[in-house]
Amino acid sequence: xxxxxxxxxxxxxxxxxxxxxxxxxxxxxxxxxxxxxxxxxxxxxxxxxxxxxxxxxxxxxxxxxxxxxxxxxxxxxxxxxxxxxxxxxxxxxxxxxxxxxxxxxxxxxxxxxxxxxxxxxxxxxxxxxxxxxxxxxxxxxxxxxxxxxxxxxxxxxxxxxxxxxxxxxxxxxxxxxxxxxxxxxxxxxxxxxxxxxxxxxxxxxxxxxxxxxxxxxxxxxxxxx
Length: 225
What we know:
The chain is of the alpha/beta class. 43% of the residues lie in helices and 20% in strands.
């Protein structure tokens, strides 16, 4: 039975979520501030986390960053719950590794549906084989989850790594922004296609000269050259 960790400081929302999740057969753990929420996530390793953005002690974004940098917790899917609803907020949340994003007030039915879809997607996801892609100026190692550009380690977010590896695994193939969103973020994530442009821009900045391998085809999409 899947266990869902709720990290949310509004107790009425927690009670509503707990009641409905238990009705669906999920086990539920709760934390009302960022620091205890992070500790609980690290100790319990839940099946999925519902994470508020604005929390006392430690923000949802900081929690997400810390969890995604830890090999033990990097694979936990995260749905962010927040009163903020601008496109920028969504992009930032997804950039640091969140799988989905719901703006308050949200439909409990929609949230349950998204939870089920994400858990199914993670259950079907095969264990990643160790793959190392090496070019003269760029190395991608999936086992270590490391990227080196011109011999130097580059720190990437989970989504940046996934996007780079997907493009590099299919050199020369042109992908539209919609295709990249479907593959890297999951088709259920309702965000604007410019999110891909933001990630590509930041990837290029972090990779330096090696960023030239990601080629833009205006009006079409991106490819790895």
